[in-house]
Amino acid sequence: MEESNRVITPAEAIAAYERAFRLGNPSEVEKLLRNILNVQVAVVESLEKAKEVLREGKKLATVPVPYDVFLGKSQSLKESYHLDLKAVKEGDWAKALHKVTYRDEILPNCTYVLLKHEAGYSREFGLTFEGEGEITGFEDQPAPECREKFMEGKFQTFKEHVLGAWERSGQIIEFYKPFIKTWAENVLTEHSQEQREKFVENVTWSLRIVVLLHDIGKLNRNWQAVVWRNEERIRGRTIPLSKRNEPIARTSAVSDPAVRERLERPPPHAPFAYPFLRTFLRTLSGDYRFWDVLALATARHHSLEVSGAVAKGAFQLSDTGTKVLEDLLTEVLSPLSDEEEEVLKHALYEALKSVQEGSEMDEPPSPSDDLYFLYCLANRLVKVCDWEDAGGETIELPELRGKKDAVAG
Amino acid sequence: MPLPARLELGKETYLVYKTGIPFYDAARLIGVAHLFFGTASAEVEDKGNYWEVSGVGIKRDEQQVLWIINRLNPTKTERKLFQKDGVFLWKEFAEFFSERDVANRKGSREKLKAEYDVALQIGTRGIDPLSKYEVLAPRSTGEILKQFKAPFQEVAVATLGRAFAASVRSFTKRQREEIYILPVFRERFVISGFLEYERSFVHASGGWVAAVWAALSILLDLTTKRLPVIDFAYTREAKAPTGQPIFSDSGYLGLGKLCIYWWNGVKEGKQETLNLLHNFREFLENTSGQNTHEQVQALARHVAAFIANPNAEALTKMEQLKARILANSQTQQVIGGTVARRLLGRGEHLREVKAMLQLDLPEVPWQISEALAKALGFDEGGWMNQFTRLENTPNFSQFIQQVERIISRGCYREQQEKGQQPNIREAMIRAHDLANTLRGIGSALQDEKAFRAWKAIFLLDVLSRARMRTEGSSEQTGEGEARELSEEG
């Protein structure tokens, strides 16, 4: 089996647990997981060349190597570099490739860059870690991912973008729902069938809501100011205030590299989703830990560095923010009774208060946690809907969704 | 899309009343969280005299609980705490820990051994020994009246919590010491999934060093779980080779400062902080073997002291020992010498050490430490003498004079090595210019404590740049050193 396709089968998992149980040694399971865990390795001609290509917005092509193999082989390498994806994203080229000095710095699921004169890479035999070889090459980043990451490529107002993402979440959630149902049946066995069904309804509803409100941080006054200024630079003219009364989500495409150089980097927006959604969902759907997990998964839709911590006062809602949010919720959730409208307004008010007050760090669930499934699901849904809307492409289950659309049509 | 009906999934809440015995309490809290919620989420809140542990009720896997207990090689009695006639005692546990009134908590009483916290042992070190004078005799008498007991549910969760403790062992000819350590968390946190970290530690430098290493290791292993650890509870027993108890104590390790420093690093995503802690952990891990050189063992003791309580004294000792280990490595093989060289071996580490000290110290001018390292490198045999003179300078002005002297000699030697006509005046001017840079920061180092701390950091920086030939190349860690040297080169 190719390493890139290596997955843990139920039989292997059961065997590992059985072995661990009989030996009374939980690290048996860890050993197996470590073998499955990979690091990504890119082989480049030189460090300078790698930096140059990254600057052009390309990705390093990588090959997966089992974590423990790389850990062992790294001892014999004179030079290896850790690719800091956050630094790449922020354009901090001085920190993008950091020399690995200690074994401790090699971690699973990270990307490492080796030099071709000692990696001994060939397409036929893979990495030999001995002597001269080929490079692994470079890839263009997928357009939807680029557009979403760099917040440019297609002008969109906040409302257009979140409604677009919302629309897509409705299609995708139908495919996810059976899995949520099965999960609830297996995990919430202590609760009645009725409660479980209610839970599935609540979670699917909440998953769509987190997609709708995932970019709440873009309604931050500071973020809006920076991105509108960028739009003016791209268009090469001042946009009157009257024409920018709607919050923006993404700037137009940049064709001139000189203009790109002059664009400001907007402040982070994704972390604000955590305190906002956590409070919004807890107020609406009950005081449960599930909602924290969905909120954190949403806040981490761009970067896993987001911890949930938000400083007090870091978020200042833009002037039209409250109205935009109220209209948005009424539009997608209507018809609502007067009582429901009140409930919704109250939740929105509490959530906005909470995001302004800030929040503390939260723990993302680990794979040994029951809620890990919900976390992964939410993170994926938000990311996919975000990219799909930014790129105008169907990424998740395109064939199945195509068929469904055809049937519906 | 209409609003869904408000979710009303039943939540379970359990209370863990505090006894004030730190390790026993920490074990019971973790035990309750794991027993009832395990792979789900347990939300824990400190309510003063008790902790409230709550979450959505789930069906727990009994085998998983028993599997955890197996780590302790449980006795028959310990196994029986959880099951009766093959039936897991869920009902009894749930009723007991959900009962708010302690007086109404019912359960047959079981023995509490010293392993649950040595404060629970019989004898003079037990809780309130004078309330019952007959318990003052050593516990080896086997007097059954002298046993502390608690409802079996409490003993069971303490057993389960104990299975998560890190064990620290140290041996000498005269005694065998065992310490068990558990993390203590902030007033509000969530435990989800397994609490996994390295759990076995033995260090050549003794129990205290191993305990600090264990605490550091637990913190680093919990980094991704982002659990707010504020200190560690421990229980320790020292026994004679015959098994006779000779000393015991329990309480908190008092690593609050370390926990705050680590937590701030985690919270702010400061990789430099974690790198420094990894550097310390790597050092302690690689010097744990019994064949580690005595000087390196002594260095490990000062490293542990510094980690526990960052201060100028411990840092100065670390610098002095590191320098001597490097000097010794030139003529003999020093086991652990290579790891000692890597300790605080990068500028980034030293900047973080400065942050750990919480003193407002000026930056180390790297041009000067580089020039000094180079100058010392010309005197392969006698560099330690010059280095010692630097260490012994009592104030900043004398320190500058000494630095200037060494650099000027180094410049002169450099001219000779390059085959140039030696020009003493030029060498002195260069040294004087560099020393002037130091004079510029003099005002910040008038305080004696600040000067000593800064001097230690400066000298450690010089050591990290020094290129002395060593004899330790055949050590296991030689490859790492070769890599470091090539990096420096």
Relevant terms:
heterodimer; A: 409 residues; alpha+beta; 2 domains; 5-stranded mixed sheet; two-stranded antiparallel ribbon; 18 helices; 11 strands; globular; disordered N terminus; B: 489 residues; 4-stranded antiparallel sheet; 13 strands; 47% helix; elongated; disordered C terminus
Q: Briefly, what is this?
A:
Chain A is an alpha+beta fold. In chain A, 54% of the residues lie in helices and 9% in strands.
SS class of chain A: alpha+beta
Pairing-aware structural class of the strands and helices of chain B? alpha+beta
Count of individual helical segments of chain B: 18
Q: What is the helix tally of chain A? A: 18
Residues in helix, % of chain B: 40-55%
Measured by residues with Cβ under 8 Å of the partner chain's Cβ, the largest interface is: A-B, 56 and 49 residues
Overall strand count of chain B: 13
Query: Ranges of chain A with pLDDT <50 over ≥5 residues?
Result: 1-6
Strand order within the widest sheet of chain B? 11-8-9-12-13
The parts of chain B where pLDDT drops under 50 for at least 5 residues are: 470-489
* Shape descriptor of chain B: elongated
User: What is the topology, as strand order, of the major beta sheet of chain A?
Assistant: 3-1-6-4-5
